[in-house]
Amino acid sequence: MNHSEPPTLKPRYATARNADRETDGALVAKFSTLLGKPLIPWQRQVIDVISEIDPATGTYYYDELVLTVQRQAGKTTITKSYDVRNALWGPDRKTWYLAQTGKDANDQFRDFVKSWRRTKLRKLSKPPRLSNGSMALEFRNGSQLRPGGATEAAGHGVQGDLINVDEVWSLSKQQAKNLKDGFIPTTTTRLKLTGVRPQIWWTSTEGNANSEYFNARLDKLRSGDIPERTAFFDFGIPFDADPEDLETIWSYHPGAGHLFDFDQLAGFRNQFEDDAEGWARAFGNIRDAGATERAIDSILWADTTAQQVEPRRGLRVCFGVGVSLDATHTVVAACIDSGDGAPPLVQIVDDLPGTGEAPARLLALQERYGAPICIDRRGPSAALADVLATTKSSDTFEPVYRLTDMKAGDAVTAPQSFVSALEQHNLSHATDPLADEQVCVATKRKSGDAWLWNRAASDVSALEAMTMAYWGFTHLPDWSIDDIQVF
Ligand SMILES: Nc1ncnc2c1ncn2[C@@H]1O[C@H](COP(=O)(O)OP(=O)(O)O)[C@@H](O)[C@H]1O
Ligand SMILES: [Mg+2]
User: Fold this and answer.
1) Which Gene3D superfamilies match (predicted)?
2) Does residue 113 share a domain with residue 65?
3) In a domain, 6, yes or no
4) How far is the C-alpha of 100 from the C-alpha of 167, rounded, in Å?
5) What is the number of the ligand 1 atom nearest to the C-alpha of 166?
């Protein structure tokens, strides 16, 4: 097959463009270009349809978008340009970008603000507000674009003119219902007041067996039950196709040839190792029907919370590292002997952007606390682990990093021993916003008789860092008092 050009788009389903209606899509495309991301064909196709104008009212025809597409295809990107266009449509509009967690939404928002500051569009807004809790881009016309966590928002409800609910797979039926119930009753009033039809967008990769709301929604739409004013786009490989066939992945991925080349696919596949379901989901957009419930029960997590510990003289420590699947951040955790017969404690030390800053930070921690580092030599942390393992002192040619002696087989049992330790109250954890968020959605995936963190389903980097720290801690060599450093 020819891989030098992008394949033609082959959505599993796509609401057709109705040529009798004008579309506002070109303007969205223009904003996207100004924001540094000219729309790629699938993005333009979706934007042109959802931006169709009803000749009867002069405003949007559709009030709902359901979009499911592979991960990393560019779905979050289009929401940003659309939000900007929407906010500029008139004064005092409110648009919301809701991600899986508040932290995800804030990260996306910060990322967006970076491109916003580089465009000439920035003159249309006041300086972005970046403090947690009140992040917003306020336009000079009084409109606002705000990030939020879908879970939190489902608790109190948000109102507005455009709500993007991203990563819908993570929502329960009740949460989705709360979001919709908070939004719909106000839409008629907003339409009257602003003349622009409010919209709610549901965007997501396929989920897992727990994705109650999204699974039911997709099943219904796929059965042909598509409401008149809902635009529906369904990208992915055919349900009976073989996800291991890279030609198939290539020809059905709408980002193929635009966001990645064919030659990169084998490498992407390798990152998933033996997680075939994760791969099929991320790159084929096939539901992972096998993944079961959350790995750590909410009550267990709450019961094993303890106060953060300040490392001090005489306490044993091991650091653990977790890298997110997309390598956008590296989490460092510590497992610390809390002394006085209390169980050891894991706590998050750092959440670093990318992986580049990690070696220097880890070296500083290792030296300051005289503690070794535990890192998985396979999976998303493999490249960083290699750097740590191969860095040698230029004087002595000795390895610089003290890595615990963790074998591939140990990495497979580590998550299980981590959770068992919590269950037996032989381990506690300090409250941490990142770890607490990840634990809400983290699931297991089977690997032989053991289980591993399901990296493809959600970001588990903080939990992996804690897992590594705990494993390293329980495998520390017996130290003589001379080894213990003064903090
Ligand atoms: N039209 C585009 N032009 C250039 N890069 C893009 C475009 N759309 C998406 N990207 C890039 O592709 C990556 C994935 O996009 P994202 O919107 O985060 O995907 P998704 O939300 O589907 O996982 C990001 O790095 C993003 O900047
Ligand atoms: Mg996204």
Assistant:
1) P-loop containing nucleotide triphosphate hydrolases (3.40.50.300)
2) yes
3) no
4) 6
5) 21
